[in-house]
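#struct-pred
JK: can someone run the complex with flavin mononucleotide? inputs below
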Amino acid sequence: MSTQDRLSLYSRNQLKLGLFGANCSSGRAVTKVPERWSGSWDDCLRLARMADAAGIEFMLPVGRWKGYGGDTDYQGETLETVTWAAGLLGATQRLTVFGTVHAPLIHPLIAAKQFVTADHIGQGRFGLNIVCGWNEGEFDMFGATMREHEARYDYAQEWFDTIRLAWSAAEDCDFQGKFIQVRQARAKPKPYGGSRPIVMNAGASPTGQAFAIRNCDALFSMTPKGKLQEFTAHVANVKALARRGGRQIDVYTVAVVTCRPTQREAAEYYRHWVIDNADWAAVDRIMAMRGVTRERFPDDFEERRHHQANGMGGLPIVGDPDTVTRELAQIAAAGAKGIALSFVNYLDELPFFREEVLPRLARMGLRETE
Ligand SMILES: Cc1cc2nc3c(=O)[nH]c(=O)nc-3n(C[C@H](O)[C@H](O)[C@H](O)COP(=O)(O)O)c2cc1C
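RT: done, structure tokens with the ligand placed:
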């Protein structure tokens, strides 16, 4: 079990694929269509087994404590991500499963032990997504104060330093930080197989990205629609900054896939779930939480609303298998190591994607045939 095995997500595929958001009701689709994702444990388990058998490399959950309301209470039911990961890791063979953890809401020594436990269950397939939080309502419910933006990452640095200490060979060690102090900390066992879990972060701000570059194996960044050139430059820049600091980092992105036998069917279904049946009340709440109002963005407010309905801003990939394959390949060519995908209903839609898109990606040399 080497760090390299973990970083490769246990596959030789050039383009890694994952599933994003399946632990939440509605997943990443802010829609009212009745077939929207349940987020139930049974569905997650079936999905993880199907993904594992198909050679999908990872599942990435969303760390969310409070739904967004609206007609569907979008993401109102969410399974806690580390226990979710532990269960899925116990039921799969190859899949890497991430836990998405709010650093300020859990003591790092407890967190470190939870991660090690999940990692042992998965024999080295647990991954950690560190989030600092952005949603004040969620912090209020814990009686916790959300720090100002820069301090969130200062705290996360100490939190992760403490985790690393707990994972290291050091015994009975102290940590004296500005926010976190531990004394004579003992943490056994260590992560599985003498290496540590893969660690990611999805900071978008310069501070968030600098945190990833300093600490993480992977940075997840959004690819704005039609801006692949900017994404290419972003990947190159992040990698160069990491190298300058003596580190190496991969850049991943996220996309929402609507794939159907023909271009027309895909466009029609996309229109159906995003435009005709979005949960606009939930969309507008998310927009308000992010400070996106019609007054501030009069020119493209409607476009922004559609963008939120579609995976809260995830890149929409809509088309027949050839089109979807081509667009995924373009993202790979822009330098992404992998893509975390969402579907309106992951279980219903993954089989078609597996049958039609995975072989096409294999023919392009981006993945091996299963
Ligand atoms: C792929 C991806 C996954 C994310 N997952 C979560 C999450 O599960 N929970 C959460 O509170 N924030 C999540 N975020 C938000 C980021 O952690 C981060 O706070 C956000 O991108 C803003 O960046 P900043 O913190 O650098 O300002 C995610 C963002 C992306 C792009």
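RT: quick notes.
The chain has a mean pLDDT of 95.
The pocket of flavin mononucleotide is lined by residues 62-64, 100, 131-134, 202-205, 207-208, 220, 222, 254 (CB under 6 Å).
JK: thanks, will look after standup
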